[in-house]
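User: I've been trying to design a sequence by hand for this structure and keep getting stuck. Would you show me what you'd pick, starting by listing the structure so we're on the same page?

Assistant: Good idea, let's start from the same input. This is the structure you sent:
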């Protein structure tokens, strides 16, 4: 790997293709903190972050080695997308997200591979939709889906009379978020 160009995505891929350990080492240094932050912020441990990142690097490595990698975005985006998908599947297996994987296909969690640029677009549109959603819906959904708080905790935090009322409000907030997401996504999604 050439010193001057070793930090470009193309040079990193070429380095991996030619078994240059410095390329993988650099990927770890550059992109692990981003993945670790995501996992630690979403009910994960440091060890789980290391495992997921290792799995993501392995997917990336194998696709380069067998010639099936079609990179249409930055390596950073690709690795984040792969690691995010791996982590969400692991959370689903642990039942921490209690049905999010099944009911929230609108944020790109379906089983078939999604192009990284499409995932990036969905992240962006979802962030806009969450910002438009307003309070208390935004915090309620984040508490339930991201912080994995129980309905009882949410009931107490928001002052609902019982968990059923909190669930009803969560459902209404989720429907509003879906409507905002789909309305915005239809205007920016590439035509198929």
């Amino acid at each position: 790997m050439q010193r001057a160009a070793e930090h470009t995505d193309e040079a990193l891929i070429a380095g991996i293709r030619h078994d240059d350990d410095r390329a993988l080492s650099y990927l770890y240094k550059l992109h692990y903190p981003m993945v670790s932050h995501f996992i630690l912020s979403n009910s994960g441990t440091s060890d789980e972050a290391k495992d997921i990142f290792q799995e993501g690097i392995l997917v990336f490595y194998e696709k380069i080695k067998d010639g099936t990698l079609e990179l249409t975005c930055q390596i950073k985006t690709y690795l984040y997308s792969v690691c995010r998908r791996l982590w969400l599947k692991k959370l689903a297996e642990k039942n921490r997200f209690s049905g999010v994987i099944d009911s929230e296909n609108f944020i790109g969690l379906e089983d078939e591979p999604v192009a990284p640029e499409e995932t990036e677009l969905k992240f962006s549109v979802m962030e806009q939709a969450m910002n438009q959603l307003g309070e208390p819906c935004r915090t309620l959904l984040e508490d339930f889906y991201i912080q994995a708080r129980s309905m009882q905790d949410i009931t107490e935090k928001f002052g609902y009379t019982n968990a059923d009322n909190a669930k009803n409000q969560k459902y209404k907030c989720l429907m509003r978020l879906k409507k905002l997401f789909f309305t915005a996504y239809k205007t920016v999604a590439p035509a198929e």
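That's my pick for every position. To get oriented when you compare it with your attempt: The chain has nine helices and no strands. The longest helix spans residues 163-188.
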